[in-house]
Specification:
- Helices cover 20% and strands 25% of the residues.
- The protein is α/β, with parallel strands linked by helices and 339 residues long.
- The protein has one domain: Purple Acid Phosphatase, chain A, domain 2 (4-Layer Sandwich).
- β8, α7 and β9 form a beta-alpha-beta unit.
- The longest helix has 14 residues.
- The radius of gyration is 19 Å and the shape is globular.
Length: 339
Amino acid sequence: MEKLLTKNGKIITGDNGGLMVQSFPSTLAFLPDTQTYVMSKPAEMVSQIDWLIDNKSILNLKFVGHEGDLVEHWDTNPLVPTGSTFTPTGYTEWSFMKWQMGRLTDANITYSTLPGNHDYKNGTRDSTMYNSYFPLSNFTGMSTYRGSYDTNSDNTYHIVNIDGHDLLILSLEFGPRTVILNWANNILQTYSTTPAIIVTHAYLSKDNQLFSHSTSRAPSNGYGLGSGPPTVNDATASSGTTSMWNTLVYPNNNVRIVICGHDGNSSFGAGLLISGHTDGTLIYQIFANYQYFNVGIAGYIVLLSFDARTVHFRSYSPWIPAYKTDEYSQADWPWNWVV
């Protein structure tokens, strides 16, 4: 019998499959795609933010990352469903997300966001709407913030202190362009002795394969980002996550974890691929996206809790509430802060 955190933040005794000890080491949380939560089941999104805030101290929560696809509709920006008890009417998808992520700031929890394909104007890399609600100024005052590619918030990096150790978190746009891959590579080399986590929207598919240009759901294929006039489509989009692997993940021994979403369906919301650097250091590549699940079984958050020699990977839904216990949703991995 283990201890299980409930959605109201209290701890109850329950059979938790031996997953989580009562006391938490320092924890990072990652929010998988929230687009359909915002569109049709916003109470699940609220439960996630409620739980993170209510359990900030219990979790020893250091940072929250978002995988992208914050909203479903980039430009039409419809109202979220009304009649709920948690919010007055009148919130659009974007204003709702700004409100919810802003609650983390109000609770002194630092976070990052990045654009998924639904956060761009359809068929382009126009992130004007995303940046109007999540401008770079949202992040520059955070204690963890270290820099961005340009004056937008599409590509940023943070340094999080975990019990005296620095951890680099790179948040990269959907299907990173060559210039972004080069920029991120420079950051990884600048912080070559700091373990790093890369968060991006599309990297691993639900069948635990790296996306390639030949797959219909690859970052630069099928979304108008890989060909066509530069004024409409971005000709410098990468050909798929193979480029991310070759340029960023494999060559940089400090990359320890990659987290993504994007793919998935009503049956598959998780994937896990473990690879290695040339020096033998393992790379844990996590795919998590539960927004397609039916309302009663969704709402999972990725949790990474660190102690001196182990990272504890868990998937928890405060909405159900329950941990997800399949082989792709939980593990304990060896961890070394020395690169």
